[in-house]
Records
---
Amino acid sequence: MISRHIIGAAIGVLVIAGTASACGPDDTSGSSATPAVGTSKTAGGDDGKAETKAVPGFIGMGLQSAQDSARSAGFRSLSSHDSLGRGRMQAFDRNWKVCSQNIAAGKVVSVDTELDFGAVKLDETCPAKDQTAPAKAGGAMPDFAGKSVKTARAALDSGTSISVKDAAEDRFVLVESNWQVCTQKPAAGAKLNGQPVEFTAVKFGESCP
């Protein structure tokens, strides 16, 4: 015969199981609901567009300071070029100063906009207007007089045979961005058909003979 104690214990187990079932996963009255998905915002706002800001004025600043200031203002796409059109690289930004900026100070643009600074070395004078490198030569020889040998070379076809001689002394023309063209052969306007090109040059600041 089954004792009364065993029967009572079995009934107790059934009661507890029923209570747990009544308060199981279907009970959503608590405060632990799953957070909603897709509620994050972009840095630019609800519409996903990039933030816009007024461009600061950089002219007259050292190039490194201008770049640091631009980054602090939220602009990250920065570039620079030689305002004298000589094709020099701004390897040490602290040695250069800003002469021009491609976006006028005060203009409101996206922070993704590239800011380009025209610059010269600290001991140089900014030109009234940025000078440009010669355009790519087509079928005729451009006029390279006064242009840097570096930009003259870059304007010609990469396969062109080019020789450069010092017009004043017997020096080696090593850093071509520091030398300006005095004479050229073929002459400006001559048809280019793959013939060799000859330049004579002096350093910038010197006069052609």
---
Amino acid sequence: MGSLIEGYDIPVVNERAVRVAAGILFSAGAVSITLAVIQHSAVPLRPFGVFFMMDMLVRVTVGDRWSPTLALGRLIVRRQPPSWVGAPQKEFAWWLGYGLALLSCAGMGVLGAPLEATLALCGLCLSMLFLEAAFGICVGCALQRVLTKTPPQYCPGDSCRVPE
């Protein structure tokens, strides 16, 4: 997960590519959730949910280099200087995304959850994607700071640095 870059103590990922990937997923998810609301059916959410879940799973198991959305994100920002952030907190965030997607997909399928519950879960995912893409706020990274003993390093805009 991530790349070992000289000058960094831990593996890092390019925050610019991550934000582009979040924007791509947000856009696709927004279209899917809009269609689901209009049609009053979870059917339009299913392909997006499966794609989102698989993209997150690829990131955390095979590696971020193999994620289709991150690959596209890297391609889009290839001419911009990278903005390196810690990979461990992104991995935590991506596991959170995978868990929410898994729960949403299970709700749409075997659990037979009401559409409103599925829309609420998808809305939560979309909210987090929007915060990441638009403002660089990683909710999963913030949760990692609270829920684990290992403090995050190399956060966007030095947001995890403790003031002296």
---
Amino acid sequence: MSDTKTEIWFYHLERSTLDQVLPGLLEKTLQRGWRALVRVKDVADIDEIDELLWTYRPDSFLPHGRADAEHANRQPVLLTESGENLNSAQTLFIVDESELGDTEDYARCFIIFDGRNDSSVQHARNRWRDLKDGKAELQYWKQDEEGRWARAA
């Protein structure tokens, strides 16, 4: 366990989709020399993100793997639906209403939610309130009119 609190950043998707935002955030994570764990609700979501990370750009892909595959511990980006940090990631990505679990072993946690889905928005509000009550270090990011990310809280 680290003495530093995990930074928890909420990303409110309104102008962009998860498919447009997640690869860029993962690229920046890898550029920092960090590993990432992407937690989703179910296997169908893992299948979609797995495909996305292979094909999101015609000239490149993001190196990644699935938690249920061989050598999961070696993957710089690991896709999972469990709470186990098999690849010793420094960053945790929570997609929509996926289980948050323990965040204390991560430097940063990204909670990415779809602002066009009422259930996801309500779930994110409840998470924010619960985490704030727990004295977590929170930031809230939202896109401006040009689609750039701006810190809103």
